[in-house]
Design goal:
about 140 residues; mainly alpha; about 45% helix
């Protein structure tokens, strides 16, 4: 548990720096993940509860688009210039696919969580008036 008041004498780090380094978006010191992509319940430095964080599939979508652009572009260039057999493509692009998808996934999820915290993003909560069906 934190020993000091987290609100006292604190300046929040850049959400981009905190997210990409997988650190707490409030203090920039505590670790964000306890596994590869599992969020900790709370920051071990300042006590921020990470229950607000729900990045969903956002990080994976960004990573897939970026990795697809890189790998498909490289594969097309190699095919047009050298026209190697299919096994050479499998040998070349398998490791590149793994590298371009797995390496940036954790920092992208950290970035999404930090930006959610920074912009105070939350799920939409529609409140309906039961009498007239109006919001």
């Amino acid at each position: 548990m934190p020993t000091t008041d987290p609100a006292a004498d604190r300046s929040e780090p850049s959400p981009i720096r905190a997210g990409l380094t997988c650190r707490c978006p409030r203090c920039g010191k505590g670790r964000l993940f306890q596994g590869f992509l599992d969020l900790r319940p709370r920051c071990d430095a300042c006590g921020l509860d990470f229950a607000f964080a729900d990045s969903g599939d956002g990080p994976a979508v960004f990573v897939i688009f970026i990795a697809g652009f890189i790998v498909v572009g490289c594969a097309l260039a190699v095919e047009l210039v050298y026209a190697p057999p299919i096994w050479v493509h499998a040998l070349l692009w398998g490791p590149l696919i793994l590298a371009t998808t797995l390496l940036p996934l954790r920092p992208m999820k950290g970035l999404m969580v930090a930006l959610q915290y920074h912009h105070k993003a939350a799920e939409s909560r529609a409140e309906w008036n039961a009498g007239d069906g109006q919001r």
